[in-house]
């Protein structure tokens, strides 16, 4: 029996410290919802999870880009719908101006409306979307995926819709003040309508392509999130069981340490 060195107390204190440490880790996991609260918990798992988090964020950023590109295209088509109505009316006016029972004075009245609609189309060509021109020949490169095998980003080239093209300017520059001018104007307007139909078809194809890509990225993001969850999210049921275990060990260790600290007092009986 010794007094200066209490082996039982030292052992109990060490075990209590270990139990307390495990209890703290379990508490941190339950409170954070993550089973990796510190790098030493799972060094490799933390590295993989960090990369997954970054890839998920890049995927969401690409979805945001695509969503904005779809809105851009829908805005384009919204304007072109109104241009379609204007061109339809201009073609109608071109026919009316060729009526042999009309005088040039009558045709000048038709031409006033024709010119107003031409100005409307010309003004529409200058509209923009957040500072980006809606109706130019310049194609727009839309980032659709931030993760390829080579590490570079994929992009979709969205064709430009140019309301300044010759087919449109010929129509907007025409007049219907005479029967011959009205005939020429009709040909130009019909050409513009044909071009407009092609442009709206191009916009529709772009929206369809971008919508499919957006859905694909949504599925990718869900799968990446599920994979990342398996690595870093805590199993609450399992961790709750461990927490209860460590909590009991800490309480038992505390009680046993108190008992171990009383052991040297037995030596006083030998000195009596």
Description:
With 272 residues, the protein is mainly alpha-helical. It has two domains: 1-33 and 234-272; 56-233, f41 fragment of flagellin, N-terminal domain (Up-down Bundle). 71% of the residues lie in helices and 6% in strands. The strands form two sheets. A two-stranded antiparallel sheet has the order 1-2. A two-stranded antiparallel sheet has the order 3-4. Helix 1 (7-32) packs antiparallel against helix 6. The chain is rod-shaped. It starts with 6 loop residues before the first helix and ends with a helix. The mean pLDDT is 90.
Provide a short characterization of the protein structure.
The protein is mainly α and 272 residues long. The chain is 71% helix and 6% strand.
What's the arrangement of secondary structure elements?
Layout: H1 7-32, H2 43-96, H3 104-124, E1 128-129, E2 132-133, E3 140-145, E4 154-158, H4 166-172, H5 179-232, H6 236-262, H7 267-271
Antiparallel strand pairs: 1-2, 3-4
Helix pairs in contact: 1-6, 2-3, 2-5, 3-4, 4-5
């Amino acid at each position: 029996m010794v007094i200066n060195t209490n082996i039982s107390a030292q052992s109990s204190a060490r075990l209590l410290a270990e139990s307390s440490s495990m209890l703290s880790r379990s508490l941190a996991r339950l409170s954070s919802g993550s089973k990796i609260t510190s790098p030493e918990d799972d060094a490799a798992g933390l590295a993989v999870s960090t990369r997954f988090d970054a890839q998920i964020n890049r995927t969401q950023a690409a979805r945001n880009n695509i969503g904005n590109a779809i809105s851009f295209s829908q805005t384009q088509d919204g304007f072109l719908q109104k241009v379609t109505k204007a061109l339809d009316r201009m073609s109608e006016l071109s026919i009316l101006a060729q009526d042999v029972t009309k005088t040039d004075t009558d045709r000048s009245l038709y031409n006033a409306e024709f010119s107003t609609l031409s100005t409307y189309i010309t003004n529409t060509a200058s509209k923009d979307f957040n500072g980006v021109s809606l109706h130019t020949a310049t194609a727009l490169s839309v980032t659709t995926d931030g993760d390829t095998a080579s590490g570079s980003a994929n992009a979709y080239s969205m064709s430009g819709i140019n309301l300044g093209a010759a087919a449109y300017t010929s129509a907007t520059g025409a007049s219907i003040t005479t029967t011959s001018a009205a005939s020429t104007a009709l040909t130009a307007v019909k050409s513009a309508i044909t071009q407009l139909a092609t442009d709206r078809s191009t916009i529709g194809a772009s929206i369809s392509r971008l919508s499919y890509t957006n859905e694909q990225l949504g599925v990718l993001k869900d799968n990446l999130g599920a994979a990342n969850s398996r690595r870093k999210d805590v199993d609450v049921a399992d961790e709750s069981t461990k927490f209860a275990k460590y909590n009991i060990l800490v309480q038992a260790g505390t009680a046993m340490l108190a008992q171990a600290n009383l052991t040297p007092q037995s030596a006083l009986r030998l000195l009596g």
